């Protein structure tokens, strides 16, 4: 490996994870990123009216995101995230329902009493939800309901409209990036098994304490530079070709360079055009990536003249707004503004709405949810909609995702959209980067895993449903 050069194209989480894994070995690693900063979709922007960086959209990880958390540990980024064990659901009447695991019960009953306290769900609804979770949990459900769309399955399981809207949808739409009428049962099952049923810490959420750009473009990059990784920002790659057992990389500037190894870590919609026709022929699945459905996420940033709530974040039920994150007091012009970020996943229905209209709708929802009196004054707002934020976890998705390893040694794909079994998340991106690194390492006869194992399955979940018995390392 010594002296062998690796080009990684794309400085999102997938590219960063690949660089992290390979930097444990004596490669010469070059990471090329088209934009000014690393982080990709988990990025931030500057606005002249606001002194601090603004995350394009709030990102959170969960306790089950073992590879993302492992990457953070290896790059000493743990301090950049806060771990929250308590969630809050706010119903249509403005009632707040805390949701926190018992301090001692094992999964899956650790959340039973928290679930029972969600009074916007009637007891019959809660019973039917529990019965549906019981039906979905065993590994055999994957085969039994393969190809099924989640909404159809929920109707079959006699779930009421309220249960679908206020329980299933609220968890799944943000995790899977599409309405329940489009997402697959298998993907939905994975969210519940990994996030709630297998381990008592899996549901906890990790919230960045500092802007994402500071996490990935500054702190992560610094650690990787110490390990010798060379970052080339604002260096778009136009195309890669293969000559004389080497990858010939042509940059947007017209210059070229050759490498023994190449990892493409760009999003699905940008991947096919990166490869010369000959290389593309070696990766037949790239022809199908256009069929991967993208889904938008809108992020509404509000600066108010007074605080709305002390809660750090809340899930809003029965509203357009889905999650609200409280970022506290921030400097705004010459004074102070209280900054809130509201996330709306699968926001395609809002496409025609003007930004001021959407901001006022969201503000109205926050005021009623938190019964804020007198109503705060809106100092400033910004709406950021990422049209291709995530891919939708439809029943066809898994058949479209390529593996990281190609048939050409030294050539690998990474990106949240490649085959990891995970939805479009930072965890999926990091897993893909680690799997791409493993593919490169196999060329040098190194065949050990570089990533992290899943959280272990609790004894009770194993006994109840046989969870974990069918699992390999990842
Ligand atoms: C609005 C929004 C909210 C989200 N919320 C969450 C969340 O709360 N939790 C969560 O886990 N996930 C969330 N996600 C998903 C998460 O951001 C992505 O899954 C993850 O960041 C994808 O990482 P990636 O490296 O695969 O791709 P990307 O982040 O897209 O990185 C690809 C990089 O490649 C670069 N690139 C592309 N073409 C070229 C080229 N030709 N040359 C050089 N560079 C190139 C791009 O500039 C980009 O930096 C969210 C995404 C969005 C958009």
Automatic annotation (TrEMBL):
InterPro entries: Amino_oxidase, FAD/NAD-bd_sf, Flavin_amine_oxidase, SQase_HpnE, Zeta_carotene_desat/Oxidored
EC number: 1.3.5.5
GO molecular function, one term: oxidoreductase activity
SUPFAM superfamilies for this protein: FAD/NAD(P)-binding domain (SSF51905)
Annotated Amine oxidase domain residues: 13-441
Keyword vocabulary terms for this entry: Oxidoreductase
Residue intervals passing through the bilayer: none
Cofactor(s) for this UniProt protein: FAD
Keyword Metal-binding belongs to the record: no
Binding site for FAD: 33-34
Name of this chain's protein: 15-cis-phytoene desaturase
Organism: Bremerella alba
């Amino acid at each position: 490996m010594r002296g062998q050069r690796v080009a990684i194209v794309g400085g999102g989480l997938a590219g960063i994870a690949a660089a992290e894994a390979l930097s444990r070995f004596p490669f010469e690693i070059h990471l090329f990123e088209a934009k000014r900063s690393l982080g990709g979709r988990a990025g931030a922007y500057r606005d002249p009216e606001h002194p601090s960086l603004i995350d394009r959209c709030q990102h959170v990880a969960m306790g089950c995101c073992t590879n993302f958390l492992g990457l953070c540990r290896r790059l000493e980024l743990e301090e950049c995230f806060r771990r929250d064990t308590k969630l809050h659901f706010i119903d249509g009447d403005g009632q707040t329902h805390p949701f926190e695991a018992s301090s001692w019960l094992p999964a899956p009953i650790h959340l039973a009493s928290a679930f029972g306290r969600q009074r916007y769900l009637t007891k019959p609804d809660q019973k039917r939800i529990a019965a549906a979770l019981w039906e979905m949990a065993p590994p055999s459900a994957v085969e039994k309901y393969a190809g099924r769309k989640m909404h159809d399955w929920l109707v079959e399981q006699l779930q009421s409209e309220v249960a679908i809207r206020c329980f299933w949808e609220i968890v799944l739409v943000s995790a899977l990036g599409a309405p329940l009428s489009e997402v697959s049962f298998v993907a939905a099952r994975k969210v519940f098994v990994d996030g709630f049923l297998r381990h008592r810490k899996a549901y906890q959420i990790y919230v960045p304490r500092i802007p994402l750009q500071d996490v990935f473009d500054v702190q992560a990059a610094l650690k990787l530079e110490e390990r010798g990784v060379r970052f080339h920002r604002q260096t778009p790659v136009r195309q890669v070709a293969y000559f004389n057992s080497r990858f010939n990389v042509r940059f947007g500037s017209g210059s070229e360079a050759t490498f023994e190894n190449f990892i493409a870590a760009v999003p699905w919609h940008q991947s096919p055009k990166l490869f010369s026709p000959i290389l593309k022929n070696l990766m037949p699945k790239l022809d199908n990536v256009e069929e991967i459905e993208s889904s938008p996420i809108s992020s509404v940033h509000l600066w108010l003249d007074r605080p709305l709530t002390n809660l750090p974040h809340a899930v809003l039920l029965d509203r357009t707004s889905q999650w609200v994150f409280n970022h506290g007091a921030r400097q705004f012009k010459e004074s102070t503004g209280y900054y809130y970020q509201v996330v709306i996943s699968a926001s395609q229905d809002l496409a025609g709405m003007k930004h001021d209209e959407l901001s006022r709708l969201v503000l109205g929802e926050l005021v009623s949810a938190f019964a804020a009196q007198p109503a705060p004054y809106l100092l400033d707002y910004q709406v950021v909609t990422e049209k291709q934020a995530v891919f939708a976890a439809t029943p066809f998705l898994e058949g479209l995702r390529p593996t990281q390893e190609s048939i050409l040694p030294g050539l690998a794909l990474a990106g949240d959209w490649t085959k990891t079994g995970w939805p479009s998340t930072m965890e999926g991106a990091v897993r893909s980067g680690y799997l791409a690194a493993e593919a490169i390492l196999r060329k040098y006869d190194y065949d050990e895993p570089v990533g992290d194992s899943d959280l272990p399955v609790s004894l009770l979940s194993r006994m109840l449903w046989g969870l974990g018995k069918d699992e390999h390392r990842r």
